[in-house]
Amino acid sequence: MRMMDLGALRIVQLHDGYGAIDGNRVFYPATQDEWGEGTGADPTGFMLNAYQPLLINEAGLHTLVDTGFGQTNPGRRRDMQDDLRSLGLAREDIRRVIITHAHGDHIGGNTLLVDGKYLPAYPNAEYVVQQSEIASLQEEGGPVWQQRFAPLQSSGQLHVVDGEVSLTQAITLWPIAGHTAGQQAVCLQSEGAQAIFVGDLGLSIKSFARPDWGPSWAWSREADQANRRRIAEWAIETGALVMLYHEPRTPWFRIRRATAGNGDYCTIPE
Ligand SMILES: [Zn+2]
User: Fold this and answer.
1) Domain 2-191 has CATH 3.60.15.10
2) How far is the CA of 245 from the centre of ligand 1 (A)?
3) Distance from residue 35's CA to the centre of ligand 1 (Å)
4) Ligand 1 mean position to 4 CA, how many Å?
5) What is the DSSP string of 53-76?
6) Tens-place pLDDT, residues 105-150
7) Distance 260 CA to ligand 1 centre (A)
8) pTM of model > 0.70
9) What is the pLDDT of residues 149-160, one digit of tens each?
10) ∠ CA(144), CA(95), CA(101), 5° rounding?
């Protein structure tokens, strides 16, 4: 398990399994000749994809960022619950869950299906999500809302926020719409050290070397690209550590301005 101390915070990367993803869709509109180097992609463009929620321990209070697949996708080979158990934590010990965005690989574990009923998977946690992320889901009332969010609302655990908000002295949420309508990043600050968990603002470390290449399925490719540049510039200015959800090999890195040719930014794995 990857972990570090950031000032007074302890940060742990949990592992919820592996899959494969089409690099041609991840780095749209680049071709594999352009994006392929160093990604380990096979000749058809598929590359390894990991699912990696974050656990933050702030003075003994545990915050989880994203909930993985939960009971969905049983073939993924790893389950973050095993990591929590090995840290000595039960579901009841998680006091806050931050949802970066409402895609299945990030919210599948919000709830548990028990005797035909969806229940909050973390019974003592508030679940924090942006209003702009769930507005249309709630309006449509489809299965994502019914199964992953409505049970949290019923139990009084859904905490809907709107825009930038500080949850504690160390944890601030920043809207980074683009991948979805209401994706949010989790900015961490403690004793002068800074880090930012950006959800799917970058699917690969290479997404930050070449911020103009982005997922073809983004809600707004333009907004996604603009936020990738904005966060990269901020990370260069502050020296903050950038953390990704899907990057399997080098998910934590810093960003510098590129000195020559090979992209807009230079990424330095931690
Ligand atoms: Zn994702």
Assistant:
1) yes
2) 7
3) 19
4) 23
5) -EEEEETTEEEEE----TTS-GGG
6) 999 999 999 999 999 999 999 999 999 999 999 999 999 999 999 9
7) 31
8) yes
9) 999 999 999 999
10) 30
